[in-house]
Specification:
Blueprint (H helix, E strand, L loop, with lengths): L2 E3 L3 E7 L2 H7 L5 E8 H9 L9 E5 L3 E2 L1 H12 L11 E3 L1
Antiparallel strand pairs: 1-6, 2-3, 2-4, 4-5
Helix pairs in contact: 2-3
Length: 93
Amino acid sequence: MIQVDMTAPATLCRTTGDSSASRSGKVNEAVAVAHGPFVIMAHGYLAQPLAKRSAFWIRSAQRNVMPAEIEETMRRWHDRSNGADQSRGAIVL
């Protein structure tokens, strides 16, 4: 299991859509959407339409965190009964 710190630097990334890929001649190009604390990038991910979320992930110093993990992490952070260390702002995936 990997510990995720809510305040750790992270990058919200996405793959380009078909129209962008065809214009650039590249398929599935990764694009950095935003940089900031992991928790803010996770909220940015959740602000995306449900149908488009599969194109996003969060890159952290530890690894890439994929959509299902982002959603689970946010559920755990908001669930005080899960045993997360709320004082340090971290949770174990």
